[in-house]
Amino acid sequence: MPAVPTSASRSALNALTGRKALARTSKTPGRTQTINFYALGEAGLLVDLPGYGYARVPQRCARSGRSGRRYIRSRASLVGVVVLIDARHPLTPLDRQLLGWLGDERRLILLTKADKLPRAMQQKTLQAVRAESPRDDVMLFSSVSKLGVDECRDLLEHWLAAGRRE
User: How far apart are CA 148 and CA 137, in angstroms?
Assistant: First the structure.
């Protein structure tokens, strides 16, 4: 059976690619156990790594983190990393740990499920995350309301174009 991306990554992948069912999902978080590849035509690949923040079994979370780190560190062609963080619970200790081990990689933090917050709280959360992660691109994102989808696509296209020139 193929790996099943988490609902947050699945929703983001489907919203960014404009396809409703490119990535399948499960109602149970923490199910993605393998690295999933999505072709972006000639532009490159979008890679969905196993989640790091949730697992029914703590050892699975640790294994997922190790496989993600190995993958990221071994890719010379990597142009950036998109980190999905729930806007309702931003920058948890696990989020900070992940950002720490990503080191100097180019990063985009997508604050997902932003549609579930009032507009004032969205802006407060966005400002707080930008203040704590000033070197990162940070965007509000919602696959439901399409908030941030076009901006995210534009940034990823820019990263890919810049990566081909380097």
Answer: 12
Task: Identify the residue whose tokens are 């059976």.
Answer: 1
pLDDT higher than threshold 90 for residue 149: yes
Residue 48 per-residue DSSP state:
E
The secondary structure of 50-94, three-state, reads CCCCCCCCHHHHHHHHHHHHHHHHCCCCCCCEEEEEECCCCCCHH
Domain boundaries, position 112: 7-165
Q: Specify burial of residue 119 (Cβ count, 10 A radius: 0-12, 13-18, 19+).
A: exposed
**pLDDT band per the 50, 70, 90 thresholds, residue 5:** very low
pLDDT mean over 37-57: 69
79 phi and psi angles, rounded to 5 deg: -105, -10
**Nearest of 27, 7, 5, 3 to residue 112 by alpha carbon:** 7
- Could you report the per-residue pLDDT of 18-31, keeping only the tens digit for each? 877 776 655 555 55
- What is the average pLDDT across 90-98? 89
Could you tell me the CATH number of the domain that includes residue 107? 3.40.50.300
In the chain, how many domains are there? 1
pTM, full prediction: 0.80
Q: Which of 52, 54, 72, 84 is nearest to 148 (CA)?
A: 84
